[in-house]
Amino acid sequence: MNIIDRGSGPPLVIVPGLQGRWEYVEPAVDALAVHFRVLTFPLCDEPSASVRFEPAHGLDAYAEQVRAVLDEKAVARAAICGVSFGGVIALRFAASQPSRTSGLILVSTPRPGFGLRRRHQIYVRMPRICGPLFLAESPWRMRPELRAAIPDVKARRRFSALALKTLVRAPLSTGRMAARARLLTSVDVRPDCGRVSAPTLVVTGEHGLDYVVPVDGSSEYVRLIQGARSAVIPQTGHLGSITRPDIFATIVRDFLTAHAGARSPDAAA
User: What pLDDT, in 10s, does the model give residues 227-236?
Assistant: First the structure.
């Protein structure tokens, strides 16, 4: 299995988002690796994952991959951090494997019952035709957020250049992204929320800056998961974990440090 293992300290698993490639959260991986032993990977339906994928298992197939990563690295228990679509996977894992989850971090995660915008519904029905259009419009959709998160023009250009390099070395499959989007709209994760026993942190950007997943929707998890807390990465929207990775890493570190002694009922038993 293709597993990226960086840093040292308490184990932390990062589940990537709809792109399916860990490279798109690499700035967050590097920032978190200062404080944690970070494990991440391509999602199991990506060829680069080098692991079998069972489409019929749906969301459970991805959650099973998280368990396999822990087994492969001989890690009994870890904090699980899911970014965007990866948050839904992290939630399913935490709900089904409480004894192996020391903490749960949901980052700009689509709310339960998430629905696609009308034009995105068209995109996922015809990904080969409309996928390039979706990718082409992304920079324009993200422009207000990037200006807020990275005010300096030169720094913003460096970020954009790095994003372009990532796209070249980790090509996206619009077909696989569309399949994940369809899965996202078909699964009900509300029962999972009621089964989470690990300390949970819900991280979002600011209201009005997330043009992918509305902040109000992500914040529903604070209400649905018992004891969940919230944190906001200032001057960011959906991309806060990679536009301001050091602040994001500090938020995660402080939360997990405060709950280092917390254990789930199953683990205690």
Answer: 999 999 999 9
